[in-house]
Predict the structure.
Amino acid sequence: MTSGVVGSNLLEELLSGPRPAEWASLREAAERRLEGLDLPTSADEDWKYTDLKGLKALSFVPAPVATIDISGHLLPEMVGTRQVFVNGHYAPHASCASALPAGVRFLPMTTASEACHALGNLGLEKTFLEDLNTARFQDGAVLLVPKNLKVALPLHLLFATKAESPCVVFPRLLVVLERGAELELVEEHVGEGTYLSVPVVEIHVGEGAILRHERVQRESPEAFHLGTLRAEVAKGAQYHSRTLSFGARLSRQQPFLRLAEGAEASLDGLALLTDQQVADTHSYMEHAEPNASSHQLHKCIVDGSARAIFNGQVRVAPGAQGTDAKQQSRNLLLSEAARVDTKPQLEIYADDVKCSHGAAIGQLDPEELFYLQSRGLNADDARNLLTYGFAADVLTHVPVASLRRSLRQLVMARTQATSLGELL
């Protein structure tokens, strides 16, 4: 797929043509690719450190239509730019698009066409998670921004799940920004009970467009979250993503990005884990054309017997001269039983490039702990303060004030850094 696909004709196509009841061909193709497959095991290299036995031990049924209290997740800056899906179904009474500027379409996927589900391949083989979503999803969100429109207000997309018994949901999102458009989007996943969520996000950032994408995973502690994101960033466009993972018994994020000439992208992440939580990030950044730049900073704070996994691959294609790619994995261990497996990778087929990667795994600095205690803090407060500080630089850049405050409070509660209340 080339970067030139995003245009006014495409927007018309996305809102016309076959509707969900007629998506049989797409679903059947996904079903065929799934035939004979099972969930991956540790024998699969990409899942070497992520054990899905706990998931296999449960029996999941399709999530029923339900209601859930989302009042604690509403963001005041986005009262009129919010779409809500509960158990995979559009929730019109909780959604409000009254503040959207003219020309922006933010609507349920059931009103769009099958073209929505033919966009995200990017020339790469689809994963079984994407095929599973395509074969089984009920509804999703479509967000279309016409050319040269800079949307002033951020938009909020909330996927909520309520499970009385183990169930499965398949959130879906398609974002298309035409040439020169600009948008800020908050995508959030929350829930109650034991469930499996398999979200798929497809993003197309047109030439010269800018998308800032905050992704917040606050699933139930009993949930499993296995997500995939594919983004195509056209010539001179920018895509900036920050993924914040706090919930779920087991979570996995799979972002795949493809950068055209002069494109710019950032993939930042923060995972805060405790007890027996597992958080896995497998990212793939392809510099397909010259003079693109990318930056990745992934941080994990791991306590209890939790485990974090990071595998980040940067590929510089032949002819992609002038590439500037940086990748960092930084991890903080707070207990003897905590574990981190990290593997940043570079695959370079051009010679005029600036590429770097690095990984660090460690504990709190004893000298910093001593300094804080010498200034009057007890050992626990000093530890909590330094732990909060490790996460704070990621949260500082969250642009939506109410979301930033909420996330800071969550991190403070997890780290018991109560002495930092004056920072909120």
